[in-house]
Amino acid sequence: MKEEIFSSGRMNPMIDPTLHIWHWHIPVYLFLGGLAAGILFFAALYHILGKENEYKTAVKIAPFLVPFILVIGLGALFLDLSHKIYFWRLYTTIRLESPMSWGAWILMFITPLSIIWCAFNIRELFPKWDWKFKVVIRLEEFLRSYKTLLAWFMLVAAVILGVYTGILFSAFNARPLWNTSILGPLFLASGLSAGAAVIFLMSRSHKEKLLFAKIDLIVIGVELFLIVHLFMGLLASTQVQIDAAMLFLGGPYTASFWIFVVILGMLIPAILEILELRGAKIPGFIPAFLVLLGSLMFRFIFTYAGQFSSWTY
Length: 313
What we know:
Largest sheet: none
Order of helices and strands: HHHHHHHHHHHH
Helix content: 55-70%
CATH topology: Formate dehydrogenase/DMSO reductase fold
């Protein structure tokens, strides 16, 4: 039965794209949400630690990407909605048991917070910028007096956003591959790795680059640990969950997952970062680009594979 499922063109979503209920919108939304969470997490963390001038890119520069990232991600999510004109109903109620409700509200909270964070640094990064309205200047001065408190809120919100991108999947009880508590921490770790990669790419400070190479190396280790335990948990469960794990262990997603996510997205960047930390001259954009590619492919592959996973074949 398993061989028939894996080999049949009718049943294999890698061959039959009509089985992809979510096309590219959801994976892109999840990737961008995780990336935004990673960037904001490091911005808030190093401000709280009092190192915003030491790690200027992480705290002051990279966060300028976040509002655009969130808008593009929300645009991708909007395109996936079946009843687009009713999107506003997500904000007319709060359902604590609904991941979508959590996601909608955390995004509504973190988007303006990221814009406020950027506003703190506009005049420093753009000295010729001139505020025209006194009310804006007074508002900025008022908010600046609570900057550290806002950083704490942003840190917590970034963690919730990163975890939410995995919990959104794990709430689908009908999909054995997704129905695991490991997805929240795994998606958070993936978002942190992507955020570290972007900061590494944007930074011009050698010290900052080395720091985020080390951070990314640690986070990649955490990701590999979680992936191993994800498969161990699936293989130790019921037959349908074993079948879900086999999608990556000999099934249609084996090559794409292990090549694009694990080897190219984690192991090779980790090796290159270790070499760089030991003084080798490695073009920094290569491991950073591979980490971002692996993070994006992880979400595409996991989205599609999860739809193929079912309690009944």
